[in-house]
Amino acid sequence: MKIRTSFYVQLGIFVISLVIGVYYALILPGRVPTHWDIHGQADQYGGKWFAICFGPCMILFDLLLMFVLPRISPKNFEIEQFSNTFAYAMVLMSALMLYLSIMILRATQLAPIDLNRGMMAGLFIFFALLGNVLGKVRRNFFIGVRIPWTIASEPTWDATHRLAGRLWFVGGLIGAVLALMGVPMAVSITFLLVIALYPVLASYFIYQKLG
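Structure (tokenized):
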């Protein structure tokens, strides 16, 4: 995906989030749920504007990052070397923010929705879609498994991201199915942490082998 295409797609996502925000601003009461426990039950209440502004603000921030990060990348770690993948990843991030904001707004409306199940399924699908292209990400300081061993060694970076890409894709699909089946929130979070952090641990041993 080209950077320009990504910009227009993210701009469209931003407009959608604004329209949804205006709609909920008109129908929500002044006081709404603002926090939910591990069982998805509201346990704190407050003003509605955080929930309304969350999506548009985060998507706007993603748009800003898409233009700023390539311009501040250090020499030999430029984002331009994988710009199409970077553009795709930024669209995924904006889409995730839109999805999460819709889930939160539905929950503040006290709609019949399983917030935890929906949010975890969305996060797992995000990991699966990102994992599908993670192997194309070249060494940089802003996206990917960025730890000392991967930054120091290009072979370690490449091997770690091929491993992470496969793990995130398969694990993301499995996690999404498990979340939709209604496994406990603690199980989903633990599984997500395992697939997210395993490549970090594995990268050390890959570095010891490849240098």
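The first strand starts at residue 31 and ends at 36. Residues 82 and 138 are 6 Å apart (CA to CA).
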